[in-house]
Amino acid sequence: MTAPHYIGRFAPSPSGELHFGSLIAALGSYLQARANHGRWLVRIEDIDPPREVPGAADTILRQLEHYGLHWDGDVLWQSRRHEAYREALAWLRDQHLSYFCTCSRSRIQQIGGFYDGHCRTLNHGPENAAVRLVQQHPVLSFEDKLRGTLLADEQLAREDFIIHRRDGLFAYNLAVVVDDNFQGVTEIVRGADLIEPTVRQISLYQQFGWRVPQYMHLPLAVNEQGNKLSKQNHAPALPQGDPRPVLINALAFLNQPLIPCWQDLSLDSLLSEAVKNWAPGDIPLKAPVNTSFSNAPH
User: Residues 120-143: pLDDT tens digits?
Assistant: First the structure.
């Protein structure tokens, strides 16, 4: 059944080049959008300069194009959206839904790792302080289109989490919700490593009174040691050669139907076949047991 006005997105941070794990998220979100005759947007989440690699954003866009994953409209850059984030913070402040907090990470670790609302009534000023949300809409569970009902850690769900960092940077959870709402995103398809932040993001949607998108969290590709492929784990960048065998590997990872004679197809034709055959219900919840996936064709 075709979803009305479907809008999906891929939102990488420019902390390094895309690797096979990134391709899984990009391809899954792309195929879901195209199979629903929807729009597929790309957003560069460049709001954390200390973590960013110079030139990585442009490289990511070139990689997506090289793999035939062409987006709709203009790329949205979070670094150009600061005014929108400031407006969101101001609205929460005016509604008495946020407060300044001076608690250190070490203090929070000493009390068990979850913040206890210590500063909520202390009326701190902004000096050397983070901004926390007054949590009024704890999300104890949510529906994932692949995984069904997912239950949240209750302490995590009830926590007054940070929406503006002590170092002056905007928090990821705030920026992603403001931008997904601004772009009209109807479904978020991304890796399972982002399941935990989802409960905080849904609570922010509810706090602002915005429509909550649907969610689908894809399995994570792992290396030979069983660790998630990531930039932190030095996962190799996607190869610059023929993208088709790598895409075939990604489709196999997602347990999608084998495309006959794919070697004879152009890149665009291969992706068109992948859209036609897209079967999200066949996606596994985890990477295949005892199998690691890399960029190399299998």
Answer: 999 999 999 999 999 999 999 999
